[in-house]
Design brief:
The protein is an alpha+beta fold and 159 residues long. The protein has three helices and nine strands; from the N terminus they run H-E-E-E-E-H-E-E-H-E-E-E. It has a five-stranded antiparallel beta sheet, with no helix packed on it. It starts with 5 loop residues before the first helix and ends in an 11-residue tail after the last strand.
């Protein structure tokens, strides 16, 4: 697949609005960053999973969007297994996904993206993905989007 341009990236990222982010991390070969979303923030909707692969990704910054006051009330290990909070004052980590709201920002260029583009000969972009658990800031050169089959595993411990 040929490289996508900023407009195509923006169009693909528009689909992330209010989806459920269920996994993010570098691929096992550590060059690309993958974001896996469930087709709806509502797990009862039964929609499939989609992989957004940010290719040639030299920088990702992940910051918690859960405030310190909520963190302080959300340290209980039981919340790792709790799918819904017993009150709004805690974060139920066990929900196993976070709503991407407001979602993805527009692809931007910066001094750093221009420097990488100049050195590598391909365009680079920066985007922000914002959810109710994390904010991800990614710098990358290309994006591919694919549907995932049941059983997809981003990493397997070798035998």
């Amino acid at each position: 697949m040929s490289a996508v341009n900023a407009d195509e990236i923006e169009q693909a990222l528009d689909d992330l609005f209010d989806q459920a982010l269920v996994y993010h991390g570098y691929t096992d070969y550590m060059r690309d960053y993958e974001v896996i979303v469930r087709g709806s923030a509502d797990p009862e909707a039964g929609q499939g999973h989609r992989r957004y692969l940010f290719r040639h990704c030299p920088r990702v910054t992940v910051t918690s969007t859960v405030g310190p006051d909520v963190w302080a009330r959300s340290l209980d290990e039981a919340l790792l297994h709790q799918e819904t909070p017993h009150d709004d004052a805690v974060y139920a980590w066990g929900v196993r996904g976070q709503a991407l709201y407001p979602g993805a920002g527009k692809p931007e260029t910066s001094r750093e993206t221009r420097r990488w583009a100049s050195r590598l000969g391909v365009p680079f972009y920066e985007i922000t993905l914002e959810g109710n658990g994390h904010e991800l800031r990614l710098m990358f050169s290309d994006l591919t989007v694919s549907d995932l089959a049941a059983g997809y595993t981003p990493f397997v411990v070798p035998a």
